């Protein structure tokens, strides 16, 4: 699958799509980026009068790039395989820096293993200055169903 | 290696993924990972990967799908050890 086909296969749309582009993808990992639209609804409440991107949204962004894009690529590339969906099963993330409305971030994910349909990855997010914003591990099960 | 020895080596692997440690007190061959120990499918994969390392065996997809209980896992481990 090429990058465009993977993006087309993502099961998200606005306001919950957190991948703009895939820069690189292969068997071992993926790099993608996303710019946080300053008008995203959650900025109105997180926090009142002081908008900062919620950690759960940063986690979601890393999962959409690092697990879902890579999971679609890996499952679609198996012989006779159909590109699947990915259910998030666990995360362990450390947060280092805030991400403000309008910032562009890059997510770099490295596959630790993909076995028995479980994809386990190291992920990190960088801001435009190249500083690590957050990093950790994410895992998910690649499935053909949307609701587990 | 007999079945008791396999269980003794399986128990510490399983323990890592179980929240309610008291459910391990009566662990036997009939114990079901999902129903009795409340382990999810993602952690089931981790158990299988740990089993591969502990017993120095390789488990294929077909065998993995059978490993839903302690007894079924022992059967797979015995088979793979015999095939070595």
TrEMBL record, chain A:
NADP as UniProt keyword: no
Key words, A-Z: Lyase
Gene3D superfamilies xref list: Hotdog Thioesterase (3.10.129.10)
Keyword Lyase found: yes
A Pfam family the protein falls into: FabA
PANTHER family recorded: 3-HYDROXYACYL-[ACYL-CARRIER-PROTEIN] DEHYDRATASE
Record's protein name: Beta-hydroxyacyl-ACP dehydratase
TrEMBL record, chain B:
Domain Carrier as annotated: residue spans: 5-81
Pfam families: PP-binding (PF00550)
PROSITE patterns: CARRIER
Name recorded for this polypeptide: Acyl carrier protein
Organism ancestry: Bacteria, Pseudomonadati, Bacteroidota, Sphingobacteriia, Sphingobacteriales
